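Sequence and structure are kept together here, with a separate record for every protein. An example record follows, reproduced without changes.
>
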Amino acid sequence: MSKKSEYRVLYSVSCILCFLLALGIGNPPQADCAERIGLRETVQRALENNLELQAFRKRLEEAKGDITKASLLLPSNPTVGTRMGERHNTRTDSRNTDYTITLSQEFRIAGQRGKGISVAEKNLEKVTAEVETLEWDITARVKKNFYEVLALKRVLEARQTIQELYERLREAMQLKFKEGAATILELNTANIQYNRARREYQVTSGGYASSLLGLKLLLALPEDYPLEPAGELQYAAMRPDLPGLIKGALQTRPDLKAVEREVERAELEIGLLKSQRVPNAQVDGFFGREEGSQRLLGGGITIPLPLIDRKQGELQKASASKAAARLNLENKHLQIRKEVQSAYEVFLASQKGLEAYEGIVTEMAESLKLNELTYTEGKVGFVEFVLLQNNLIEAKISYLEALLGYYRAIVDLEKAAIRKLIE
């Protein structure tokens, strides 16, 4: 192969690479029947179909069941009893059948019903806040997974382009080596670069498949469901106000609300237990017949004497739970401040790191063309040309990874502050 033909081959390959990079580094093959889905719809479907969330929402029904039970007018079912027996009348030397029918009903006293309802309602508020916490956590996980799929898709496209480039360069170098126009060092360099590019493509392909599978799991979709997240990751500079984020988090975090409701529930439970130290009264009524014709009708009230069991153990346990809940509340305030500040610092660092790539990305296509021109003019050797091409494309991949890190930091900050920063 002549020197002129060699330059023509390399020039064609490099032009193809520049064109693909200018377009966003190509498009990998996708199934025609794959469902394209945006971020908003993905989050909505996850909140509707996620199995973990569906199972957790059943706790709402459990809490509502506690309210239903506490709202019953009577604490227990009425009790009906009967006794029968024969009696021998010595005066008349006859036998008569005596019987008695009793009816008993327990009644709450000391406002126990209303206090029980208050405890159950507060528990429902707590569980509702816990469900909201999980919903926000699922939303954050879905967003992270969605952004990861988008980023890895573009990285995979870049890896595929690199692999195709080095495959063509290797073939060209093999032909040159047979003609005696290339050294064994140049041939080995081409083989090494191709094998490395192929390996990195395979690793990225596995990561993309794993990330896509994780997204399907969050959506409760089967593994073989054809799904293609649609969207683009673009850098948008922002500078949220840290004090405002912390203040908003302390006002709206559902996990904080859940701890607050637990403190209130524990206080109400203590009040309920104190009222239960006075046992419930039992009202009895009876009707019977004796001596064949004598009928009896009466009633009574039974009240257990609270001499031994005065709910000492239950009150001790409830007081400990209340103290623990107050400590958890204090700790949650500190934890939220730390989480928001930490997420904010990571966000600023990722934003600063991403800004360093902005100039490189805009100049990449021009640098690729310039590198090709210097090689065709003989100003650099083949090895230098390959290394520079590789560095330019790796810079693009590094930018995509930094962009993914930026979006992950945004999601973490949104989760910590309970505020949407991007749509």
Observations:
- Residues 1-31 have pLDDT under 50 and may be disordered.
- Strands lie at 35-37, 79-89, 94-107, 227-229, 281-290, 294-302.
- Residues 112-178 form the longest helix (67 residues).
- The CA atoms of residues 60 and 127 lie 6 Å apart.
